Amino acid sequence: MGREFRVAWLGRASGHDPGAPEAALARRGPMGTLVNILVDGVAYGMILFMIAVGLSVTMGLMRVINLAHGGFALIGGALAHWLGARLGLGFVPAAGLAIAATVALAVPLERVLYRRLYGKGELEQVLATIGIAFLIIASVNLLFGSGLLAIPLPEAIRGPVDLGFRTLPAHRLVVIGAGLGVLALLHLLIARTRFGINLRAAVDNRDAAAALGIDTGRVQAAAFALGAGLAALGGILGAELLPIEAYYPLRYMVLFLIVVAVGGLGSVAGSFLAALTLGIIDTAARYVVPDFGTIFFFLAMMAVLAVRPHGLLGRAP
Amino acid sequence: MTALEVRGLEVRGLNRAFGGITVARDIDLDLPPGARTALIGPNGAGKSTFANLVTGALAPSSGEIRFDGRDIGRLSEAQRVKAGIARTFQITTLFRRLTLRENLRLAVLEREGRTGRWFGRAGGDERVEAEIEARLAAVGLAGRAEARVEELAYGQQRLVELALTLALRPRVLVLDEPAAGVPSGESHLIEEAIAGLPDDLAVLIIEHDMDLVFRLARVIVVLVGGAVLTRGTPAEIAADPEVRRLYLGAGHG
Amino acid sequence: MSAVAPGRVPLLLEALMLAAAVAAFFLFPYSLGFLTRILIMCVLVLSLDLVLGYGGIATLGQAALYGSGAYAAGLFAVHVWPAPLAGLAVGAVAGAAVAFVSGWFLLRVRGLTLLMLSIAVAQVLQEVANKARGLTGGADGLAGIAMDPVLGLFAFDFVGRTAYWYALAVLVAVFAFLRMLTASPFGLAVRGIHESPARMAAIGTPVHARLVTAYTIGGAVAGIAGALSAQVTELVSLEVFGFALSAEALIMLILGGTGRLTGAVVGTVVFMTVEHVAAAADPFNWLFAIGALVLAVVFFVPAGLIGLPAALGRLGRRR
Predict the structure, then answer these.
(1) Which terminus of chain B has a lower count of CB atoms within 10 Å, N or C?
(2) pTM score, two decimals?
(3) What is the ipTM of this complex?
């Protein structure tokens, strides 16, 4: 109903719950807690990075405000749920197919809908992408209902991993590893390939890039698809922290936008820095001063934007 | 005001650097009332930068700008307009979706300090509306008052910008490439408008169109690499060997 | 989407809307609560039209001002004096004050940064209200608001009749004020800043000061909407600062059409009615209806629903 819809928008900006932080504090003492905060915070940051980086690049490249970007994380997560929990596929094939399917959906979406938005005013883009988000939510709702869609993780990463000096949840380590992998992959892609060069040129100055003969349309489509795929990956891996359910795109929309704004439009490194910083600050605040909730998160954002209005690594357009 | 105070614009030792790049180097320039001075130079010489420095859109690294003896270096752009310095832009900057009438109305109302008023219709003052009609007629656009700026041809938009700027009753007018982008069939309108400017107005024209410059200017200042190369009357400049090399060598006409 | 001057027949649309509002009272006597909520929302969306439609200030934080007005009016009624009109004034002042202080800083930036900071202000206020349980009731909300009769004559009744006319009267007054303001020299200046801040500075306008003034007035109007809400529902919850409210107000405004004031009203009525009807009919699939509606408006009637008659007219002429 309308009620449910209302509650779904940004209940809590940062969305996730580390789970009984006070108990953890009592068990492990301050040093152990610090490690917990770091691990949880970094893992959370990696999830934010994977999902938001595509948004940052497409917003910097196409100058389109896309409030439906979280929808790709949702689609990926919902498909992984269906393939894994309902059809019984293993985690890796389920995740792989889900990501591929999300990319396959993103390509025509960009061609048919987003391409028509590039020239339009900001307000129209906001309205249209909110409409797209609504449609994605309604579709997932129709197919899977409005409850939580759990993605069954393989046995291997469900438990703790003994690293010798301490034990850490395997899932968090996998997420951190994946995040670093994505960063490395993107760095290689952008620094070493022709696509990367074209992308950087187009982000820097689209008209000049087009004048140089770069097919900016294809660059945009490819960047959009890549961003969608990464968002799906982040959604699947992050399902423990940001639960997959129909209202996901609206619930976490502001969160992703904050990462993009703080990191700077069009900057991969900026998204990484912003995601990690915000992830750690938010997790730390939840452990140490849980009463204050999201104030620190937003104050941190305001502080960064006050000093660097275009984000940590962004530039004035 | 005594004769001593009406000195117009005086620029002394104006400098501006961005990091390691100096875009304005030790520029001196005077614009007394009635001046018709042209600022010429190759692309990237710093002409628009100079316009920005004078009008307050850009702050200098060092140097002085005085208007009627008063140091205006600390004044904001809007404050300098109130003091009497106005400009047109290289790329026509108007209120595109508003009508010509509304564009000029804003200038007149702002000049009279009335744009802070919440009450009364914006277009309700007959005297103001009559002035708007007269100014539009002066640039030959009398019948188009209800058209939106974006509906006009580019040359006509340039004229509107000139009319709007004159509505501010400035004492110093900076015209940044007034003929730029105007189709050759319409450029005579611009020239006539500039030729018809009030005699006591100090005018600085930044231009590439040499015909326009030589016909309208009484003093020409040549800017290269941010610094003044030379200055003089049109005849002196035309005969100057360095200037000839600068322009004829590069293929400019 | 820029502001457009009033249409051919002056105030015809406004007269029709007023007539419709009066008729609604008699046609839907059991839905007065819902209809009153629409009226209150209209006031909020009108405040956003001033700020965003006319001023071009892209904000997703109007709820910060609405909520400030709601809590201020609610606390005023509980602790000082439960007179409705005085409460409206308090709400207006609270909204204006928060808008003035936050606007001074917010309006130094534009674009995505402004958007995010406006969201942050509302979120921080929500957290503060949450923590100040003693004063605001925290997550339980501020309750026990019992209002005196309006002007000492019209007591609030259970059915909501007084509330409806009260809210309608406030909406009409606010609308009239904004009509006058947007037609004034100040209104023209605000539209000028929206069109070209560079040109406004170049004609001598103190741009930042004008924008802050416009934002402050918008804050006052939003504060009035919040105060109305507190008085009519007799409860103030944390949701008055909620992002959902800011976002929905934005959707309603763009849907109806920015920069005309009438668009704000049309968008609010259409969105809330569709939400109400579709959600009641099928609570799970109504988002399809809204999503499709929104996309249709963007692609076919970009000026908003208020531009629909003109668009249909053009369609007719093409045949």
Answers:
(1) N
(2) 0.88
(3) 0.88
